[in-house]
């Protein structure tokens, strides 16, 4: 049986203190309450970088230029009902102030604290890539 392939573009926004932005999935959605990287599904005809720039604008109100997106790693995870393929970019430069425009809780998290935030199963293997890049700081 072949699982539906879902292609999601996601981004670790990193602030000047080396903290990473996580967003909490809202009530009523699958995996509600878990903390994820901002991003979303790549729509037909979109390049994943375009998806990310669009989602960051819609969800967080910030403007990101494509050269400020650095590829870091990817998640490939089999959920019960779909196969997720999710490249993860890192972005340290944007214009505007991060706001929660879709009512989601946001948290700026030191890399050594990422494991304190329950994440979707696909995201767990991404954490070591972020601590390798940013260090293990906890406060
Ligand atoms: N944005 C994001 N999505 C993730 C992460 N980890 C993870 O498993 N996902 C999954 C959750 C969703 O199934 C999918 C992202 O889709 P989405 O956010 O555009 O869509 P959704 O399920 O919230 O809502 P819908 O459009 O299907 O109604 O990828 C992550 O770190 N960031």
From TrEMBL:
- State the Gene Ontology BP annotations: DNA repair; DNA replication
Q: Tell me where on the tree of life, at the top rank, the source sits.
A: Bacteria
- Its Enzyme Commission number? 3.6.1.55
Q: Tell me the SUPFAM superfamilies matching this sequence.
A: Nudix
| Pfam families in UniProt | NUDIX_4
Q: Tell me what reaction this enzyme catalyses.
A: 8-oxo-GTP + H2O = 8-oxo-GMP + diphosphate + H(+); 8-oxo-dGTP + H2O = 8-oxo-dGMP + diphosphate + H(+)
Record has Magnesium as a keyword: yes
Cofactor requirements of the protein: Mg(2+)
Q: What class of enzyme is it?
A: hydrolase
Into which family does the record put it? Belongs to the Nudix hydrolase family.
Q: What is this protein called?
A: 8-oxo-dGTP diphosphatase
Organism this protein belongs to: Phreatobacter oligotrophus
